[in-house]
Every structure is written in structure tokens, then in C-alpha cells.
Amino acid sequence: MGTSVFYFVATLSIFFALMVIFAKNPIHSVLYLILTFFTFTVHYVLLNAQFLAVVNFIVYMGAIMVLFLFVLMLLNLNKENEPNKTALIKVIGVVAGGCLFITLAGSLKAVSINNPLTLSNPNIGLVENLGKELFGPFMLPFELSSILLLSAMVGAVLLTKKEEKDNG
Amino acid sequence: MDTNFVIEKFILVTVIFAISLVIAMYSTYAERKVAAFLQDRLGPDRAGPFGILQPLADGVKMFMKEEIIPSSSNKWLFLVGPGLAMLCACIGTAVIPWGQDITINGKVMPLQVTDINVGLLYIFGVVSLGVYGIMIGGWASNNKFSLLSAIRAASQNISYEIAMGLSIIALLLVTNTLSLKSIVEQQSSWHWNVIYQPLGFLIFMVCSFAETNRAPFDLPECEAELNGGYHMEYSSMKLGFYLFAEYINMFVSSTVMATLYFGGYNYPGMDYMATILGPFWAPLFGSFIFFMKIFAFIFFFMWVRWTIPRFRYDQLMNLGWKVLIPLAIANIVITGIVIALVNNF
User: Fold this and answer.
1) Which of B141, B174, B197, B278 is geometrically suited to a Cys-Cys bond with B233, CB 3.0 to 4.6 A?
2) CATH number for the A1-77 domain, one of 1.10.10.10, 1.20.120.1200, 2.40.70.10, 3.90.1030.10?
3) Where are the alpha helices (DSSP H) in chain B?
4) How much is the ipTM here?
5) In chain B, which residues touch A (CB < 8 A)?
6) Which residues constitute the domain of residue B76?
7) Does Cell membrane appear among the keywords (chain A) (predicted)?
């Protein structure tokens, strides 16, 4: 049963991900992206990573995508004020996208499908185990990344402050 | 999968769903009666004795109204909006423990749909998803006022979610678990979390007012500035769904507050009562107490609505970012220090 559910959800993920690109309206794009993230949540549940699943649900679906939608609604994008894309930009886009595709294809080729990775502890994704891992062996990288996030936050606040000074 | 298990859960889900809908339905009646009481009026009293059939009359009225979908709106998303609002309101109750395990004909049955070990985060996730119904509906209406209202709702929910999450972290330091069942079991008799986390409870409560868009945080439906709000273009039962979802949300957040901070189905002297009532009636009595707590919270929601005027937008943001978030962080630090001291000495 698990495998068929996986294939079903994986098909949905790819379908919604393609719709994100092909949707003409940016708001529809974001809504499809939300659905894509929802299918990722289901993938995490299938992998028995409940904590990651619910955090993906809260942070990506519940917070980040709300902000995306918020910004797009404020911008009020429509056909008239869509910037004209020159041929040069299109060529650059194609080259950049092609490079990404080659990188992904190359890295996928390097992965050997015949001997898949098996976890020593299948319950590693539960909150308690994950917490013990993060605050045990991975303490230093965890704390360092939290400092990184904090500095990004302080930087964002600082940017708004500076603007206020210039105006007044 | 066990067939009995499926049937058992199906019955439980149906009963809980029916109870939430009926309570939400009668909350609309209670709201008007409470408003009438607070403003020294009579309130609805025509439909049935004491106006008890008023919610039914309202429902019939909503269904009978002409359904208008604005021609310039995005039709598909216009329909998705209220549906999503109802969905997000209804799925939150799945992880609530409604009572102790009940024994029916020698068979033990838990009064909880599912006890996932991230139950608390699940509720938080559902709450954070609730804003999509408003945002999508407001945007799809293709109306400037609806859009402004949707954007207000989004910024308000995002701001207050942070303080709410921080108050939950302080609660987690006390409970050491994310499973709602264990959280309730820890609060047996009178050991309610509100005693250990009074400030956390206050922050959580203010944030749940904001998350449910109830007064004094009902800025998304501020009629004086927005001509009505995100549901301005809606008519008939689609409008009804938006209004109804608010009452279900109110019920769910009352339930969550009673579960997390007021002991759920626990009450002082429950062990003594269990010996008198036996394994069938004692859990039901616990559930009865639980619902009394929920009703007390719902009454409090209404009481506040008819007492405190609506915030201004800058006051709303100041309260969220400059008062509640620092308070919640201070609460986490103090709770952490106290727990470290208690554990080490």
C-alpha cells in the first residue's frame, strides 16, 4: 500500500510543480506551489518523519507561502504592467535552466539506485529522537545556523530602520 | 486494517463533527442573547420558545437567498475560499482528547480520534492554514476592499502566530511532550497548566482572539473602513460558510485553550468520582466538565466582543510585535531558568 500511495503522491507533486511554472497568473502559481508543499508533507509522513512533516506544514505552507501570496496581492500583477522580456533575457533563462538540468541529471546518474540507503533507526524522524540528534552530535552546526538566521533577521530590521532615517 | 477500528473511529468522527456544528450553530444564537444581555435588550425571541429556533431560521434564510457570483471574479477560487475556511475550521478537532478511555461492554475505547505525537503542532498548523480561506476569497472577489481585508487578515495572522508559537514553546518546557493526550493526563485533578504558565496562557488567549478574527481583532471585517470586509461580494450560503467558520474556529480555540491550560476533562476530585460512577459514566462526566469549560471560554469570547472596541491597525501591530512577542520570549527564559533550578536543586 505504501508504494502505491507514494507513486500517487509523487505524480501529484510533479503535476503541481509543473503547474507552478505553466500557470499564467502569478497568484495561481503560488497556490499550486502551496499544493506542491502539501504533497511534500505527505511524503514526509510516508517516510515516518512526522516532525519534519508538521514543520513543513507550518513553516512553508502556513507562513512562507502566506507571505508570498501577501506580496503578490500587494503587487497586483496583471497583463498591462507585465515587463517586456527581451530576447537576450529569454536566451539567458534557457541557458541557466539548461545548466541546472544538466547538473541535476548528472547528480541523479551518480546515485546508484541498486543499493538504497537504509536507516539504522527508522524512528529517527519522531520529535524525541530528532531533538536528541540535533542537540547531541549536531549541537554546534545547529547553534551556528541559528546565529546565521538571527543575523539575517537583525539585518532585515536594520534595513527598514535606515530607510526611516533617510525620509525623516 | 481492523474493521471494528474503522467503525469505531467513524462513529467518533461523526459525533465530534455533529457536536462542533451544533455548538457553532447555537453559538450564533448565544452571541445574540449575550449581546442582548450585555446591552440590556431581549435578543431574538420570536422563533420558538425563547427564540431557540433562531439558528434554524437563519440557516434556511441563508440557503434561500439568491446566489450571486460576480462576473469579474475568479469563479473557481471564489468557490474554493469559503470551502477552505470551513475545512480548516473543522479538521482541528481531530487530535483533541475529549475524555478518558471509556469502557463499553468490557471494551475500552479512547475518546480521541487520533493521538499523533505532534498533536500540538498539528493544531498550530491548521490554525496557520486558516487564513488561506480568507485570502483566496478576498482576492478572488476582484474587489479592492475585499483585497485590502484579505491582506489585513494575512498580516494579522502572521504577526500573532509568532507570539502564539512562542507561548506554546514555554508550555512545552513544562509538559515535555507534544501529544495532547499526555498533556491532558499530566494535568490530573487540579494540576492545570494555567497555574504554571499564567503569562503563557494570557498570551495564547490574546493570540487566539486574533487568529479567529474575533473582536477586538476583527479588522478584516471592519465595516466602517472596508464596507464589510473579505466576504463583501459573497451571498447566500457561501457567506454563511464564512460566518459559520468563524464560530467553529471559536469553538476549536476554546477547546484548545481548555485542553492545554485548563486541564481538559480533568477536575478536582475526579478519582473519587470515578469510584462512584464506574468506568462508563465517569469518563462521560469528565467530558461534560470539559464542555462546561469550553462553553465558559465561548462565553468569554462573546463577553469581550461586546465590551472592548476594535483596535486601530497600528495598535494591533504594536500589541503583536512590541508587547506580546517580547513578553513571550521573557516567559520562555523565565520558565527555562525555573525548570533548570527545580531540576538541579
Assistant:
1) B141
2) 1.20.120.1200
3) 3-38, 54-64, 75-91, 119-129, 131-140, 144-175, 180-186, 193-196, 198-211, 223-226, 236-261, 270-305, 313-318, 325-344
4) 0.82
5) 77, 116-118, 121-122, 124-125, 128-129, 131-132, 135-136, 139, 147, 150-151, 154-155, 157-158, 161, 178
6) 70-344
7) yes
